Batch of 3 targets.
Target 1
Amino acid sequence: MKYYKKLNSEKQIPANKWILHENYCVQHVKKCETCGEIINKEEEEEHIQEYHSKRKCEICREDLTGENYFTHKQTCLIKPKCKFCHKDFAPKTIENHEKNCCLNLFYCNFCFSDHPVKDKRDHVYFCGAKTEKCARCDKYVMLRDMDMHVSLDCHPDEIPLAQQVDLNNIQVRSRRVTGKNNTGVIGILI
């Protein structure tokens, strides 16, 4: 038996049914202008809607064309875990979450170790309050003040008021405080 091979597919059509097949294809089938796939003319609108219109992924909310939607959805269903708190996140949001995760680590320059970001303020306050002997003047100085101490040639009393900060990193300002007898006493306003 003799066969004809269709140009746009791998199908082989028997020679005695070739004309019948061609007539059917002309009436019912067409090639999609966007992707080149052979589709039923009656289903063209559905094909365009499903494969070529924009869709929003329900998981990560990314806008995708229909043809990318199905492959994307398979990978998007795999939710990576945060390496710090071990919660599941969408692939598009995991990187941002890990940067801001409360269990992410920061490196302490005082004790040279890693600690959770959520404890940073308390840890730096506690660890920075430890004292160490200054190699230049043999005075004990808090670790958080050591750089300033050394930069002022070991004369911490000369730290300008404008450079002093309190524990909340708020600049210290002076103001005139008057006592019972209206004497002008300089106090510290925090």
Target 2
Amino acid sequence: MGRYRNCRKIEIDIVEVLEVNWGTFIAEFIQNPLGTGSLVPSSSYLARVMVQQAGLAHADAVLEYGPGTGVFTAHILRELRPQSKFAAIEINPRLAAIFRTAHPGIPLFEDSVENVCAICESMQIASVDCVISGLPWAFFPKSKQVKFLEQMMRVLKPGGRFVTFGYLQSRAMPMGRHIATLLPTYFTTVYKSPIVWLNIPPAFVYCCRR
């Protein structure tokens, strides 16, 4: 019976991934595949692995890059202390609108993450403990990867964490390989998780410590 319940839960979670915002993600992917990165939102399984690696229990300030519709956000908010500061940065206006409906009252900046310093200043955040990213790094050119990381390092505390993910197929993509070699030049430790198969497409998580 226990095995049946676990299988049933997996089945329900997969159906939710396929149904929630499917139309929105297809439309956005068709219009801007490099900026969206996927046809469907990330699964709760991937979200849990991301948050487990983030070490949020004692974080004072956390940023989320590219939250999309807010799948990771719900898991992040459950882990944060009431006094912790949190903000999300989403450049896509349609996804930002869905995020605001799903998470009313949560600070969301409809902007590029390259402006993270100004965003932190506007929130009176001197530095952040963790950046959790849903950005499609494997689709960004080298110059954009470097620019985003350089700006992030200006606000990330010493010892702070950067958690992001890549799709299984990104390991064969030139820019996917580039970000993999780039991360160790910015961080003292870079950990790559096992494959999260219960995601569409399957994915893995990078956890980086400054």
Target 3
Amino acid sequence: MNFTPPLRIFVGWDIREQAAFDVCCDSIFRHASVPVSVEAIGMGVEKFRGVYWRPTEMRRGPAGREQLWDVISNAPMSTGFSFARFLVPHLAGFHGWAVFCDCDFMFRADVAKLFALADPKYAVQVVKHDYVTGLDVVKMDGQVNPSYPRKNWSSLVLWNCQHPSNAVVTPELVNAQTGRDLHGFSWLPDHLIGGLPFEWNWLELEPLAVHFTRGTPDMPGHDGAAYADEYRRYLKGDDHAVEPEGRAAPHQESDVGQGKGSVVQGRE
């Protein structure tokens, strides 16, 4: 498919994960071959007000730390963007294509190649992990890590925002359905959920985008994670961060941060 730049990308934002958000955005920009628009999405993002009203509480988790709790699901929320991702079609005006990813991603390839995988017969395309939490009952900074069907599918979504089946994904639906229904894409029949190569949401293979789902390397206890050194180079703003596709980093001017908004960037 042909896309008119900028490519639209929504990255989950949580006040506790500003460093991860910055690394994710920087890694997208460094590899992008075309202009991209990156937008923060999550609780606390200014433009998110008025479209998100799920009741949320703070409760103490098994690790003894306070964490967000979704009242509708009666279940923990690891981040402030747990449900924000499902508002992407609405925020995009139910038009065109967009990518959502968690903030703990680090891209190692041109995101234009991800958009090139778009197939209009699907409403969404995801990496279909068969993932269970096993012994990892907590993750990140002590957040509860529950198991549920299709876990991690929604951590990276190539949204066909204009697909007729996504017209039902309104703020009213997103603010009413349980987390299991939303993360399981329950409004879609299976044949409308397309797949993506596993390299785009790495848990085991050689990655094009690394998803630090158990915790980013700047979090205590996760400093030895695979690709942690590359992550830290991004975090320091090192111009010599690994560039697996051999591109030099483009000039960047960004005001994305602390949930403030979006930035458009292209190659010089």
